[in-house]
Design brief:
Strand content: under 5%
Structural class: mainly alpha
Helix content: over 70%
Mean pLDDT: 75
Number of strands: 2
Distance between the termini: 52 Å
Shape: flat
Strand order of the largest sheet: 1-2
Radius of gyration: 22 Å
Number of domains: 2
């Protein structure tokens, strides 16, 4: 059955699935001025806008920043990201777009954090002289990623991150390093079998977990 996505004032967007969907997506990418391309663009615009607003609201980003992120995501999709999509249905495409949108929001949040930390470092002494107390900063907000891997694979990767190396994990777990290498290879194979959007979601999750482990150790 074809996927249906309805927007107010617009007819439902009929989309095939599987190879037929990929063929249609390729044609749309080649002819952006076609009615099909315009209809798909409206769906993507509506989805990106809603997703960015949802994640950016928790990060307290300004409306102007949200609009810039929406434009950035859409430009990225039109300039080549759609060509790297390997799914076969509209829901998979929206999952792919969701990951790109979340990463775009996360980059802006991280940029704000770096700017704030730099200002605090540069101006802490001066601020204390004027106010007698350190400046108060907004709570750090993290846009949480989600890995599509099974819970047992996620837990294994977390334990590896905490150990710091395969050799150290093998020592702690009382297994051979070869066994750890084999397990990691099986997990990598499962990651490679994911869609590109799922792989991006996993990358965001893994990067966040690595930073959390490093912060805990510090």
């Amino acid at each position: 059955m074809a996927d249906r996505t309805h927007m107010a004032g617009q007819p439902p967007l009929e989309m095939p699935t599987g190879d037929a969907f990929r063929d249609q997506l390729a044609r749309i990418a080649c002819n952006r001025h076609s009615p099909e391309a315009a209809a798909l663009y409206r769906v993507l615009f509506d989805y990106v806008q809603k997703r960015v607003r949802r994640t950016a609201a928790s990060a307290r980003l300004q409306v102007s920043e949200q609009e810039e992120i929406v434009g950035e995501v859409l430009l990225q999709l039109m300039k080549g990201s759609l060509a790297s999509f390997r799914g076969g249905s509209l829901p998979e495409l929206l999952g792919f777009v969701r990951t790109i949108s979340d990463r775009a929001v996360w980059r802006v949040v991280r940029s704000h954090e770096r700017e704030r930390n730099a200002l605090e470092t540069a101006g802490m002494d001066g601020m204390e002289r004027w106010t007698g107390e350190p400046p108060k900063t907004a709570d750090s907000v993290e846009v949480l990623g989600e890995s599509p891997l099974e819970e047992k694979d996620q837990q294994y990767l977390l334990e590896l991150l905490r150990a710091g190396s395969k050799a150290e994990y093998a020592r702690r777990a009382g297994v051979s390093r070869a066994a750890v290498t084999q397990r990691v290879k099986r997990i990598r194979d499962r990651i490679e079998s994911l869609t590109r959007g799922e792989q991006l979601a996993h990358e965001v999750w893994l990067e966040q977990q690595a930073r959390a482990v490093a912060a805990f150790e510090d």
